[in-house]
Structures are given as structure tokens and as C-alpha cells.
């Protein structure tokens, strides 16, 4: 610990001394739109990033994909040192609706200690902080403490359609010891967070057609099967009133949380009454006895995203609908895969309502890095060194991101260490990043490199 | 029998002799639009009818209601004779879409033995046939064989909103021994039909709101209750997979069919394969073992008319919907009433999903006249006399009409004796009435009066 404390202190001093210059340079960066959904500015910003990386002494280039290019950079210092792959994305969400922005989305503006701009939090401010962490090491010590790979994607905001393909094709160039992503927010209390996993997802549609046309409920009620009832009864066999998924075989393989994961969850802050008040909930979803984080981390969930069939207008219409559909997603925990889940749902539908059409839609694998990974402790120490407080350790989060490309395709431990404030308003008007969060992010990135550099391979 | 056969033969001859004139007069009548939904031509046509009735020597007038007026006519011949109340409606459906009519809806046109015009079958041609039946009796014998009341409504096509109120207010003027309605179609084989009842209906909506806003299924799946799941599980408690309504207490009072009703049903023709082919059915609705007519006549049915909640667009959207609603109707058999059913559904919802809002909509009582009514046999004989074949006797039909105002408010037996061809296309473009059906209707009406006239009170 002592051998890294000394250079880090100098690096932190350097970061503080360059605070205003770093902010100015970040504002220059986010001034350039790079909207993947509109294919706007992608090539220009990718080119800028290659320039930034080369200034850090990295080999850097854009690598084409079937979609927008990846930006890849590397700087090796020693085969005895670990290699960290820093992942981020340089594309941003479209800024609409423009009229709700206080200042224009691509004219970064500082108000009350925050920079307002599209992409400032998600994700430009965060990977720019990583870049500046490298730069600060180089400025103070003349070298990097460990080997560093940068992978910056240009399609994250449109669902990362090519990252798995890219990672498979370039696995040799992506050899590393761990992956660190800085994206998303700190805890709403401001506490730092380290996340070890994400849930996967398997989305599908169920379609019922019970007759060639809608009929009159008086003339045919009791005679013609009703497509809505068909789906209601099918759904009722898929999840019971107690909230348990009852699709045969689906939940059996689920790996229960480890003791480390359970301990971590017990240490997470939780204000259930505040959550219920904010969302207008009278109760949590079934099952009643399940812990809040258990619901989001350790169990698959079957959500009906939409159910539509028959008459939806005002008053009554005595129609018996012949067609209906539901859209569903199942959030996946280890070791569930979309293929496994689709097989189970297909078999369940075949058994309970063979006339219903099952249509698999998107899928994404879950990802989880063991909490006793040898990198967990250096990461924790880095956060403490940079911020002076212990990070909250999330075994996993409820949402789905393509982290599996790192853990499952590359076989690497992968961690998310977010830098943005919880109210960053990403994907929304007036996206912002607190300058303090940006500076703390640079320090966290710098401390992370230092901690990794203290490890031997 | 013999004393009525002779005058009837002369009356039938009169009808045949006046065939063309009757058709011309019917075409003149339907040329006048009387669209209740658009409040178009109502007063004019009601006035024409009063004129027609007065020419038959009836006391006739329009009687105001809170909506469109009723046309009421009466001619009493003897207190020793029964009084028949002939019900019909002079309003018609809107003719849209006009472009699908081969000839304009209010320019009656004969093609291939059919008159095409809006309202020709539903219901002007049918009550005009009843008028001509009276006229023919008067022309041949100089008198009517029984007392006759006419009640012609101007709001049937908008749901008869004021008929119950009217019948309650004018019960003294509507004293009769039976009610006969000529509306709807003959059997598709062309066979005549006599119907003794209708199912009632109770329509309602169920609304679920589980949170103050939709949330992301990843970030909140398993935590926030899903409005669609709430309604799915509630509905699944209301009707089981075997098709049985499981709302507590709802079906218990249902009166099973009488032996007469069961015998009548067994004599009804049924081509199940043709029905299945026409509607594209692979099977009838559950329960599997229930007879076709049992489904429509002797059991309540719970139809979901529509179910809507959450995302309905293309592809996937990982949303967890906080709002959803279903619209349902329950068809009622004796002795179920809308109030009884609403009470049972309300209590069921309160027990199984108290957070779901129950909203009662429209309701209509069922109606049934015993098949051993003393008027059943004279009616059967009248049909045979006019048409030479036995009528199909329907204990009840699946749909809902306000016949209860006659059976339950006035306490009268009520019968439906339809005159129109099965492919009359009522409520649709190219509505039509076969001239042969119109003429047979006049004869049936005439025979009915003769049969009733042979009875003593």
C-alpha cells in the first residue's frame, strides 16, 4: 500500500491542479454530436478519440464492424503487469425533445457546478475521465502502472448489435486480465458503487388466433373460443398468483447467491418507504416474502410488457375477439440463457396452449463476476483511495447490458464502476454531470490503475 | 280448425293477388330514412305510421318519450278475444359505408327477387308485413279476428334506452295477452322459427393501476406490481381453463332447461362442421362436453371483449405497465339479473384483487316465455298454416334484446317470429329482404291473427 500511496498523492494533486483545464477539454469533446441512432458525427468523434489515445502514447485505431466502428487503443508497459480493458461508448442518445433543454444539448454549459450537455454523463464524461486518469499518471510518473486497453463502442445506445461479433472476431487483440466499465450512476446518496453483474433478458411474444373473425358475444359467446381468454389462461400457467414462475424447468437451474453476495446485499442501503412513495406502490410485487435486492438480483422475473386484444374504446362493445397478443420479457440470472429459456417457454406453450404462436424476440445473456475475484479487493481499495469511503458492492443489477461479451466470450472478470451523479438525466433533456463527480472519476480511474499496477500477474 | 281455414284461404288469396301492390307500398315506406343514431327522419316516419294505422281503423298516435317517440295503435274487436301486442321498430341503422351499396340505401331496388334498402329487413319490412296482415283480414272479412295493439319503437337501433321507462309508465295502455315481435331472420335453411327467450347481459370494466408510472422491467421487474399480471390473475379466478365461470355464487341460481326446452333443442338442425368451417374454428370453446345450443341458451358466458395494457407496437419494449383494463360481458340466463351479477363480480373482485376497480356498464335482463305457454300451440299452427312446414322452436337465443320489458314488466308471454331471410345483411351494406319472405310474413301474420281469434279469453 505504501509504495503506491506516494505517487497517487502526486497524481491527485495534478488532477486538482488541472481541474479547470480538464473540464474545458471535456466540454470541447461533448460539443461534437455522435448520435448512433441518426448516424450523425460517429466517424468524426471516433477519429477524435483515436487522436486522444495516440497522444497518450497508445497504439490506436478505429476498427470497422458491420455497424459503427470500434475505437481500440492499447499501451503495454510490462508482461508482468496485469492488463485492464477499459470499456466505454462514444455514441450518445438523440437529444429530442430539444425544447425541454435549458441550454442547447451540444453547447455544453456550466450551471451550479454541473456541466449540461448530451452525452456528458452517458458516456463521454466517464470514459474521458479514464483517459485523463492515464494522462495524469503519464504526466506525474512518465509511465502507466499497468497495461491498458481501451475499447470504445459507437453503438451502445442502439443496443450494441455488433459487439458480440466484434469481440469474437478480435478476441486475440482483446486479451486482458479484467474489464472495467465506467457507466451509469453512483448511488443516489452519492456513495460509490462497484457492480459485478447484470441480469440477462429473453423477450418473446405470444399470439393467439381462435377464429377467422371477431364475432358477437351474444350470438357466439360460449361457442367461439376467445383469444384473450386463451392467453389469460396460458399466462396464468406461466406465473402463479404468489409470483413464482411456473414454466416447467425454467427456474430449476438458477444458482442461489453465494455467501459473499448475500453479505454484500445485506450491507446495501435501502429506504423501501421512499421507493414505494416515489413509485406510488401500496406493496411490492409478489412473492411477498422476498427481499428487495433478492428480487432484482437473484431471481428471474417474467414481465408482461403489453397485452392487447379486442375492444379498447369507450363504453361497451359486445365483441368476442378472435386475436390477441402479449409481449413478455424474462430477466435472466445465472446460468439461464435466452436459448434455454426460449426452449422452456416454447415447450410450455406447446403443452398448455398448442394453438398459441410463440415468437422469440431479443435475448441477452446474464453476466456475473465472482465477488471473490482477485481484482475485487484492489478495486475496492482504489475507490477508497480516491474517494475516502467504501463503495457499495452490487453482486448484480436488475437491468441487462452486454457484459457477457467480456465474461462469457473473453472469459474475463468484468466490473462496472460508475462515475456519474444519480440525477445525471441520461437519455433525457438536460443531461448533466457534476464537475465534482467528473474529478472524482478521474481520481478513481487513476487509483484503479495504481492498484492494478501493484499486482503481479 | 275448420272455421278458420276457410277465411284464411281467402285472405291468402288476397295477399297473393296484391303481391305487387304490397311490394310497391313497402318500397315507398322504406324510401323514407329514419335513422335514430342521427335523429334523421324519425318524426316523419312516425307520422306516416300513425297514418297507416288509422287507415286500418285503429286509434293511433305518437307517444313522446325522453328520446324518440313510440307509435302506439290499437283496435279492439271484443273483450272475449285475446289481445296481441305487435312490437317492432321503425328506426333503422345508419347506412354507412355508402360506397359498398350496389344501389343507394334509400332508393329501394329489386334485384333477383329481393328488395335492397336500408331497413327493409330490420325492421320496416317485417312490421309492414304485420300491418298488411291486418289490412288483408279487414279487406276479406271486414273485421279483425282478435284485439290488436301495435307498439313501434324509434330507438331500437340505439339500444332501446327508453322502452323500459315507457312500458312502466304506460302499462295500462299496453294491457294484452301476449307480445309478438317479428324481427331477425328465419333459419338459414329457410325454415321458420319461433323464439321464446333471449339471454340478458351485464357488461363491466376492470381497471388496474399498480404504480404511479410505467417502469423499466430490468430496474424494477420483480419489485413493482404489474397491472397486466394483476388482471390476468384476477381473470383466471373468474373462469377456469375448463370454461366454467368461477365467480362465487354467480351460476348457482341458474335454472336448468325444462324437458320441453331440452326436447326442442334436440330437434334443432345443426351442421357443426359448417359452422366451424365458416368461423375458422378448430374446436368449440370450453367446456368441451357441452352441446352447441346448451352453450348459447342455458348457460351464462363470461366474454372478455377487450384487454389492453402496456406496449403494443412492433418488436420489444422492456416496460413494466402500471395500468391495464379489461372490458367484459356476462350473458345472463334466468333468473340472473344485471344487479345480481354486478354484486357477485364486485364481491369477487373485492376478495381476489381489492386494488382493482370494478366499473359496471350496461345491463339487460334475460327473458324467457315457457314453451308450454297456451299461445305456443296457436303460434305453431299459424306458422304451419302460412308456410306448410313446422317452425323450429328456440327456447332462447344467445343475444340480448329488451324482451324483458314485456315478460317482466308487463308479465306477458313474448314470442319472436322472424320474417326476414337469413342473409338479410341487416346493419350492413346491401340490406335486403326476399319478396317471398315478405309475402310469407304477411301470411304468417294473418294466420297468427286468425289462430288467436279462434281462442277464447
Terminal CA distance of chain A reads 17 Å
What overall form of chain A do the CA principal axes indicate? elongated
Domains counted in the coordinates of chain A: how many? 2
The largest contact between protein chains, plus residue counts on each side, is: A-B, 72 and 72 residues
Assembly of the depicted chains: homodimer
* Estimated share of beta-strand residues of chain A: 15-25%
CATH architecture of the largest domain in chain A: 3-Layer(aba) Sandwich
C-alpha-based Rg of chain A, rounded: 25 Å
In order across it, which strands form the biggest sheet of chain A?
1-2-6-3-7-18
- CATH topology category name of the largest domain in chain A: Aminopeptidase
Keywords:
homodimer, 457 residues, alpha+beta, Aminopeptidase, Alpha-Beta Plaits, 2 domains, 6-stranded mixed sheet, 4-stranded antiparallel sheet, 14 helices, 19 strands, Peptidase_M20 (chains A, B)
What does this structure look like?
The structure is a homodimer of 457-residue chains. The two termini of chain A are 17 Å apart. The longest helix of chain A is centred in the N-terminal third of the chain and has 22 residues, at 120-141. A 6-stranded mixed beta sheet of chain A has the order 1-2-6-3-7-18. Chain A has a 4-stranded antiparallel beta sheet with strand order 12-14-10-15. The first copy, chain A, is elongated. In chain A, helix 2 (19-30) packs across helix 4 and helix 4 packs across helix 14 (435-453). The first copy, chain A, has 457 residues and is of the alpha+beta class. Helices cover 35% and strands 20% of the residues of chain A. Chains A, B: This is M20/M25/M40 family metallo-hydrolase. Chains A, B: Pfam families: M20_dimer (PF07687), Peptidase_M20 (PF01546). Chains A, B: InterPro entries: Cyt/Met_Dipeptidase, Peptidase_M20, Peptidase_M20_dimer. Chains A, B: GO terms for molecular function: metal ion binding; peptidase activity.
Amino acid at each position: 500500500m505504501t509504495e503506491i500511496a506516494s505517487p497517487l498523492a502526486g497524481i491527485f494533486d495534478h488532477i486538482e491542479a488541472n481541474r479547470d483545464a480538464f473540464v474545458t477539454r471535456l466540454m470541447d469533446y461533448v460539443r461534437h454530436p455522435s448520435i448512433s441512432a441518426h448516424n450523425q458525427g460517429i466517424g468524426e468523434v471516433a477519429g477524435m478519440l483515436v487522436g486522444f489515445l495516440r497522444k497518450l502514447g497508445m497504439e490506436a485505431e478505429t476498427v470497422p464492424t458491420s455497424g459503427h466502428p470500434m475505437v481500440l487503443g492499447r499501451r503495454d508497459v510490462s508482461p508482468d503487469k496485469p492488463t485492464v480493458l477499459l470499456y466505454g461508448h462514444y455514441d450518445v442518445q438523440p437529444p429530442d425533445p430539444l425544447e425541454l433543454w435549458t441550454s442547447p444539448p451540444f453547447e455544453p454549459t456550466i450551471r451550479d457546478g454541473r456541466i449540461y450537455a448530451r452525452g456528458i454523463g452517458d458516456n463521454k464524461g466517464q470514459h474521458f475521465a479514464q483517459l485523463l486518469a492515464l494522462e495524469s499518471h503519464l504526466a506525474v510518473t512518465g509511465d502507466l502502472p499497468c497495461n491498458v486497453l481501451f475499447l470504445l463502442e459507437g453503438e451502445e445506445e442502439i443496443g450494441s448489435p455488433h459487439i458480440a461479433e466484434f469481440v469474437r472476431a478480435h478476441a486475440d487483440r482483446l486479451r486482458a486480465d479484467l474489464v472495467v466499465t465506467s457507466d451509469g450512476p453512483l448511488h443516489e446518496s452519492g456513495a460509490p458503487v462497484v457492480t459485478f453483474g447484470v441480469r440477462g433478458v429473453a423477450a418473446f411474444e405470444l399470439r393467439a388466433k381462435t377464429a377467422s373473425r371477431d364475432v358477437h358475444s351474444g350470438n357466439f359467446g360460449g361457442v367461439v373460443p376467445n383469444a384473450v381468454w386463451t392467453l389469460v389462461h396460458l399466462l396464468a400457467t406461466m406465473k402463479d398468483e404468489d409470483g413464482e414462475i411456473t414454466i416447467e424447468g425454467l427456474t430449476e437451474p438458477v444458482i442461489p447467491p453465494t455467501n459473499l453476495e448475500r453479505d454484500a446485499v445485506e450491507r446495501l442501503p435501502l429506504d423501501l418507504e421512499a421507493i414505494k412513495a416515489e413509485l406510488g406502490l401500496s406493496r411490492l410485487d409478489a412473492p411477498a416474502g422476498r427481499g428487495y435486492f433478492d428480487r432484482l438480483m437473484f431471481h428471474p422475473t417474467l414481465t408482461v410488457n403489453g397485452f392487447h386484444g379486442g375492444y379498447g374504446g369507450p363504453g361497451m362493445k359486445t365483441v368476442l375477439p378472435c386475436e390477441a397478443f402479449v409481449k413478455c420479457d424474462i430477466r435472466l440470472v445465472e446460468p439461464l440463457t435466452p436459448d434455454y429459456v426460449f426452449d422452456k417457454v416454447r415447450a410450455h406453450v406447446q403443452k398448455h396452449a398448442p394453438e398459441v404462436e410463440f415468437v422469440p424476440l431479443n435475448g441477452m445473456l446474464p453476466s456475473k463476476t465472482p465477488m471473490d475475484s482477485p481484482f475485487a479487493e484492489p478495486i475496492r481499495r482504489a475507490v477508497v483511495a480516491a474517494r475516502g469511503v467504501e463503495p457499495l458492492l452490487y453482486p448484480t443489477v436488475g437491468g441487462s447490458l452486454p457484459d457477457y461479451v467480456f465474461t462469457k466470450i473473453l472469459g474475463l472478470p468484468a466490473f462496472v464502476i460508475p462515475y456519474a451523479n444519480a440525477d445525471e438525466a441520461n437519455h433525457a433533456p438536460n443531461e448533466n454531470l457534476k464537475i465534482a463527480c467528473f474529478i472524482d472519476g478521474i481520481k478513481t480511474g487513476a487509483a484503479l490503475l495504481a492498484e492494478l499496477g501493484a499486482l503481479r500477474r
